[in-house]
From TrEMBL:
The lineage of its organism: Bacteria, Bacillati, Bacillota, Negativicutes, Selenomonadales. The gene is khpA. GO terms for cellular component: cytoplasm. CDD domains: KH-II_YlqC-like (cd22533). Keywords: Cell shape, Cell wall biogenesis/degradation, Chaperone, Cytoplasm, RNA-binding. Pfam families: KH_KhpA-B. A probable RNA chaperone. Forms a complex with KhpB which binds to cellular RNA and controls its expression. Plays a role in peptidoglycan (PG) homeostasis and cell length regulation. SUPFAM superfamilies: Prokaryotic type KH domain (KH-domain type II) (SSF54814). This is RNA-binding protein KhpA. Belongs to the KhpA RNA-binding protein family. One of its GO terms (biological process) is regulation of cell shape. It comes from Sporomusa ovata. Its main location: cytoplasm. InterPro entries: KH_dom-like_a/b, KH_sf_prok-type, KhpA. One of its GO terms (molecular function) is RNA binding.
Length: 75
């Protein structure tokens, strides 16, 4: 999952070397924290959050196939 988030994010931003994904586990499942350069934040979020929502949807669909619960946070 971590690689999936990283590949999607790197394809969208101008500075792919500054993309960083941290994985943490809690009671609700796995949380992936996506860090990008400040100037790329708009590209990751998109208009009205559409791209961010699409990233979350793709990751949740992949996690559902593995019977896991995941969340993606964009920081």
């Amino acid at each position: 999952m971590k690689e999936l988030v990283e590949v999607i994010a790197k394809a969208l931003v101008k500075n792919p070397e500054q993309v960083n994904v941290n994985e943490t586990n809690d009671n609700a499942g796995t949380v992936y924290e996506l860090h990008v350069a400040p100037e790329d934040m708009g590209k990751i979020i998109g208009k009205q959050g559409r791209i961010a929502k699409a990233i979350r949807t793709v990751v949740k669909a992949a996690a559902t196939r593995e019977n896991k619960r995941v969340m993606v946070e964009i920081l």
